[in-house]
Amino acid sequence: MNESDKVPSTNELVNFYKINHATVLKGITQLVDEDILYKKRGVGMFVAEGAKKKLIQKRKDVFVDDYVVRLVQEANKLEISESEIIALIKCAKGSEPYDI
């Protein structure tokens, strides 16, 4: 979906995903609270301006907390240097061969 696109109604989401109406409402409310969606009274729900950017930033923050911090902590325990970490990441991405 793009910014300003109308999103499906709660009933459409309930029927499509076969989930509880309360669950859909909770999710919609959370997205509105996070300024990802906005309501137009009598018209429906729409994707907010900047929603994609906000979601990507939120996922990046979670990625850092869940993976990068743990990676650095484990690397410190194993005495792996910053340059070795970078080399390992490049190897894992396939951009460089493993050569430490």
What topology emerges from the helices and strands here?
Elements: H1 10-17, H2 21-33, E1 37-40, E2 44-47, H3 51-77, H4 82-93
Helix pairs in contact: 1-2
Explain this structure.
The chain is mainly α and 100 residues long. It folds into 2 domains: 10-49, Orthogonal Bundle (Arc Repressor Mutant, subunit A); 52-93. The chain is built from 4 helices and 2 strands; from the N terminus they run H-H-E-E-H-H. Strands 1-2 form a two-stranded antiparallel ribbon. The model has no long low-confidence stretch (mean pLDDT 94).
Class from helix and strand fractions: mainly alpha
Number of strands: 2
Instruction: Determine the number of helices (DSSP H or I, runs of at least 4 residues).
Output: 4
Overall mean confidence score, pLDDT: 94
User: How would you characterize the largest beta sheet?
Assistant: 2 strands, antiparallel
Euclidean distance between termini CA atoms = 44 Å
Number of domains: 2
Strand order of the largest sheet: 1-2
Radius of gyration: 21 Å
Beta strand %: 5-15%
Helix content: 55-70%
- Strand/helix succession: HHEEHH
Please tell me what the overall shape is: elongated
Low-confidence stretches: none
